């Protein structure tokens, strides 16, 4: 195991609870702090790590994608058509939004296209019925394969106290979710929950690893008992033609740990890194986990040479990068007195022989790349954020370094303005209102004076009216200026018809008009 330090010039985006996705050896960052900015409206970044330099390039979503908020502490796993398939998608369930709201939605994210300049994903929200899991975070989702079929399994996590049980003092307190096992069938869109007698306490921030039709649940923290149970659970899922069945077996040899990171180093080998063995004590030891068809073996392995910063800090966090590597982070508050200290570390759990084999494979793959040569140009500085290992290794004037302080303040300009006295659009609480919105509110131009932009939602515009105004070539006036505009309009000149007076006709009176005059007069009278 080797540990490499990576200093980050601006680490505010990467906070505990972030996630990493690996598509074909390329690592993508998801779950940033705060809502996405204009520089990357999707909130998904491609990580390009070379030596001591980490660059982040914004990724894009296809036009038919749904809105995906930045979620921290969600449940992630890969979904394959079958156990032998090389193509896969990512399932994202639950998590915390930047407003600390919990999500109960489930998304399927797949790679549409990628070249050296642009990566495009498709994100689809799945509609589920039946026993749908409640909103939660700190849980796990796994995929098992049985009898030629696949199904997802959700377990554990935490959620907010139910509304009926909340008090003013503990309004946002969290509790363990019930220890129910949920089976989610994406083909038919249905969920089924199972209550197993072996699972008595709720668990959060545990580790789950699946192989074929079996899931092993290791570690986790229980709020109710404030314990990290060393119990090892084995869930076996059977998918016959009828109803699925789930059984649970308690095994010895578990590990008392929470918030650990699991990375795969081989077909049946995994490495367990990090986490906590108590509230105030990190777990610095590592373990190798070997899965076979019907058994699991957990053995302790040699730990890397942890730096003094890692040993003495109270908190750390990380995520699996794939291919046996883990990205570990230490909060900056612990390192304010150290000027040249690194914030992030890359822990490689594979041995030297495995690394050489992987490097040789990567070279062979690079020689047979299927990317379009015309698109294989270097990253442009304007399209990526640069995190340098050494602050003095480049000239600031020559490098477009990302800094949140340089980000345009969207609370005063752009889409996050106060458009009117009744404006209620807030960048921290806004969610899409119209189906055409993705990551910013819809706006419309008021034609008063020099013109100004207002939010369509603040103007109480229906979606059909908003689409009609965007397509029609007409002027629009906001609610505050529509009456003023009517008052300033010059009334149109109305032409009044000059009518000749008529003499009253009596019964005995007769009209002495010539026929031509009589015809024209009657024509003017009745037209």
Automatic annotation (TrEMBL):
<feature type="binding site">
    <location>
        <position position="481"/>
    </location>
    <ligand>
        <name>Zn(2+) 2</name>
    </ligand>
</feature>
<protein>
    <recommendedName>
        <fullName>V(D)J recombination-activating protein 2</fullName>
    </recommendedName>
</protein>
<dbReference type="InterPro" id="IPR015915">
    <property type="entry name" value="Kelch-typ_b-propeller"/>
</dbReference>
<keyword id="KW-0863">Zinc-finger</keyword>
<keyword id="KW-0233">DNA recombination</keyword>
<dbReference type="InterPro" id="IPR011011">
    <property type="entry name" value="Znf_FYVE_PHD"/>
</dbReference>
<dbReference type="GO" id="GO:0006325">
    <property type="term" value="P:chromatin organization"/>
</dbReference>
<dbReference type="Pfam" id="PF03089">
    <property type="entry name" value="RAG2"/>
</dbReference>
<comment type="similarity">
    <text>Belongs to the RAG2 family.</text>
</comment>
<feature type="binding site">
    <location>
        <position position="446"/>
    </location>
    <ligand>
        <name>Zn(2+) 2</name>
    </ligand>
</feature>
<feature type="binding site">
    <location>
        <position position="419"/>
    </location>
    <ligand>
        <name>Zn(2+) 1</name>
    </ligand>
</feature>
<feature type="domain" description="Recombination activating protein 2 PHD">
    <location>
        <begin position="414"/>
        <end position="491"/>
    </location>
</feature>
<feature type="binding site">
    <location>
        <position position="478"/>
    </location>
    <ligand>
        <name>Zn(2+) 2</name>
    </ligand>
</feature>
<dbReference type="GO" id="GO:0097519">
    <property type="term" value="C:DNA recombinase complex"/>
</dbReference>
<dbReference type="Pfam" id="PF13341">
    <property type="entry name" value="RAG2_PHD"/>
</dbReference>
<dbReference type="GO" id="GO:0008270">
    <property type="term" value="F:zinc ion binding"/>
</dbReference>
<dbReference type="InterPro" id="IPR025162">
    <property type="entry name" value="RAG2_PHD"/>
</dbReference>
<dbReference type="GO" id="GO:0033151">
    <property type="term" value="P:V(D)J recombination"/>
</dbReference>
<dbReference type="GO" id="GO:0005634">
    <property type="term" value="C:nucleus"/>
</dbReference>
<feature type="binding site">
    <location>
        <position position="452"/>
    </location>
    <ligand>
        <name>Zn(2+) 2</name>
    </ligand>
</feature>
<keyword id="KW-0479">Metal-binding</keyword>
<keyword id="KW-0539">Nucleus</keyword>
<keyword id="KW-0862">Zinc</keyword>
<feature type="binding site">
    <location>
        <position position="458"/>
    </location>
    <ligand>
        <name>Zn(2+) 1</name>
    </ligand>
</feature>
<dbReference type="GO" id="GO:0043565">
    <property type="term" value="F:sequence-specific DNA binding"/>
</dbReference>
<feature type="binding site">
    <location>
        <position position="423"/>
    </location>
    <ligand>
        <name>Zn(2+) 1</name>
    </ligand>
</feature>
<feature type="binding site">
    <location>
        <position position="455"/>
    </location>
    <ligand>
        <name>Zn(2+) 1</name>
    </ligand>
</feature>
<keyword id="KW-0156">Chromatin regulator</keyword>
<dbReference type="InterPro" id="IPR011043">
    <property type="entry name" value="Gal_Oxase/kelch_b-propeller"/>
</dbReference>
<dbReference type="InterPro" id="IPR004321">
    <property type="entry name" value="RAG2"/>
</dbReference>
């Amino acid at each position: 195991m080797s540990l490499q330090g990576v200093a980050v010039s601006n680490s505010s985006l990467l906070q505990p609870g972030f996630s990493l996705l690996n598509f074909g050896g390329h690592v993508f960052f998801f779950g940033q702090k705060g809502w996405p900015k204009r520089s990357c409206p999707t909130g998904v970044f491609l990580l390009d790590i070379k030596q001591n330099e980490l660059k982040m390039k914004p990724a894009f979503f296809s036009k038919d994608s749904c809105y995906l908020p930045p979620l921290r502490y969600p449940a992630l796993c890969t979904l394959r058509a079958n156990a032998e398939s090389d193509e896969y998608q990512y399932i994202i369930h639950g998590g915390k939004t930047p407003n600390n709201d919990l999500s109960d939605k489930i998304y399927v994210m797949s790679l549409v296209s990628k070249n050296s300049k642009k990566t495009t994903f498709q994100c689809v929200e799945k509609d589920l019925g039946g026993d749908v899991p409640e909103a939660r975070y700190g849980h796990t989702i796994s995929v098992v394969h049985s009898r030629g079929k696949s199904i997802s399994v959700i377990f554990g996590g935490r959620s907010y106290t139910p509304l009926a049980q909340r008090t003013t003092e503990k309004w946002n307190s969290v509790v363990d979710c019930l220890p129910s096992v949920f089976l989610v069938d994406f083909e038919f869109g249905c969920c089924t929950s199972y209550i197993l007698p072996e699972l008595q306490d709720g668990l959060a921030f545990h580790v789950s690893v699946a192989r074929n039709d079996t899931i092993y649940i290791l570690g986790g923290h229980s709020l109710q008992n404030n314990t990290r149970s060393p119990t090892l659970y084995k869930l076996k899922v059977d998918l016959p033609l009828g109803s699925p069945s789930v059984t649970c077996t308690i095994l010895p040899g578990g590990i008392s740990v929470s918030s650990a990171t699991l990375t795969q180093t081989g077909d049946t080998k995994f490495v367990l890194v990090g986490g906590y063995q108590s509230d105030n004590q990190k777990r610095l030891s590592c373990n190798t986990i070997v899965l076979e068809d019907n058994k699991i073996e957990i053995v302790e392995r040699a730990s890397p040479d942890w730096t003094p910063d890692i040993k003495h800090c109270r908190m750390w966090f990380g995520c699996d990068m794939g291919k046996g590597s883990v990205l570990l982070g230490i909060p900056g508050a612990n390192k304010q007195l150290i000027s040249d200290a690194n914030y992030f570390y890359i822990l490689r759990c594979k041995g030297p022989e495995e690394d050489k084999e992987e490097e040789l494979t990567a070279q062979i793959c690079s020689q047979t790349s299927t990317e379009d040569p015309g698109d294989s140009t270097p990253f442009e500085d304007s399209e990526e954020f640069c995190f340098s290992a050494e602050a003095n290794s480049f000239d600031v004037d020559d490098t477009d370094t990302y800094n949140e302080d340089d980000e345009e303040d969207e609370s005063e300009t752009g889409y996050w303005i106060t458009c009117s006295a009744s404006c209620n659009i807030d960048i921290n609480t806004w969610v899409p209102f119209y189906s055409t919105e993705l990551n910013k509110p819809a706006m419309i131009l008021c034609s008063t004076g020099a013109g100004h932009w207002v939010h369509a939602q603040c103007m109480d515009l229906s979606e059909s009216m908003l689409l009609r105004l965007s397509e029609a070539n007409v002027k629009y006036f906001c609610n505050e200026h529509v009456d003023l505009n009517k008052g300033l309009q010059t009334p149109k000149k109305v032409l009044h018809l000059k009518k000749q007076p008529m003499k009253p006709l009596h019964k005995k009176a007769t009209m002495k008009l010539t026929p031509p005059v009589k015809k024209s007069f009657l024509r003017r009278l009745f037209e």
